[in-house]
Design goal:
- By secondary structure, this protein is α/β, with parallel strands linked by helices.
- It has 2 domains: about 1-105 and about 300-324, 2-Layer Sandwich (ornithine cyclodeaminase, domain 1), CATH 3.30.1780.10; about 110-295, Rossmann fold (3-Layer(aba) Sandwich), CATH 3.40.50.720.
- It has 11 helices and 16 strands.
- The strands form 2 sheets. Strands 1, 2, 3, 4, 5, 6, 7 and 16 form an 8-stranded mixed β-sheet that branches. The chain has an 8-stranded parallel β-sheet with strand order 10-9-8-11-12-15-13-14.
- Helix 4 links the parallel strand 8 (about 130-135) and strand 9.
- Helix 3 packs across helix 11.
- The longest helix is centred in the middle third of the chain and has 20 residues, at about 105-125.
- About 45% of the residues are buried.
- One of its GO terms (cellular component) is cytoplasm.
Length: about 325
Amino acid sequence: MALHFLSATDVHALVSLEDVLQTQREVFAAMHRGEALLAPRALLPGDHESVAFAYLARAGKGLPAVVKMGSINPTNTEIGKPAIHATILVSDEKTGELHTIIDGESVTLMRTAAASAIAVETFTSAAPSMIAFIGSGPQIISHMEFLHELFPSAAFRAFARNAERAQTLVDFAKSHDLEFTLVKSAREAVEGAEVVITATNSTTPLLEASWLAQTKLLVSIGSFGPGRCEYGQDVVAAASTIAVDDVETSIRQAGPLVEAIAAGTLDPTSLISFGEKLNAGFRRTSTDDLWIYNSVGIGIQDAALAGLLMHRAEGSQFGRTIEV
């Protein structure tokens, strides 16, 4: 049996930012229509706030089954290793045999940032002039890429606790001619920003609701599991609307929402589905209230991009093949 391997370099060579954006627009809408299929996500806690995960999905009927497995290990940064590791396995859509193995970190970075950028496009009433970040990892860089693609006039600012990685953000912004400011506190980063994006491994809230008085949309990437809480219950209470990538997954695994539902302060039926809104061509019109988009990350996102990569690689110079 021939197995095909795609590295991170291959992934970036095979698809453009717009390609990735289009996969995410299409697959979320397809999930709402019942065409993209998602199995329950598995999370397995480990030591030192680590977590192993496994996702299984199809981007559409008749399309290949895609599995992503990996782990998030916050303490890896102390030994110079990435905090997130992932591998994606793509089956042949006809035979079910394992066909392609893809670098999972690159796919995760791209599909997550693309979905966030589309959420900003969908859940704000006007293009933001200032987008604030809390975090310093590769997700921040990927988010800047995709947000600049959709909002080329937007300026960025960030609060990052890790000085070395903060400098990486500065260097990236400079090399891509982005308007970027590094600030000294989370409060300084978010106050006055129309959009705030958190991408951390925090188990305690990073924000206070009062800081978000002028914010139209909070996007949380790191509140992906029980106990992962980038924002607290004061922010939940301050939000007029909370959107999620998948309602069923979020009510069980999105930390701040799990906590609010358990406390009886959030009705799970009030959560709105990202895919439903995309399928309907929704665009937000309100301007004076706070919305939250809580992204736990779901398998259909990986399946959509992985399927495109597999087909793009066939007959190309990218990747390598071995017989097993």
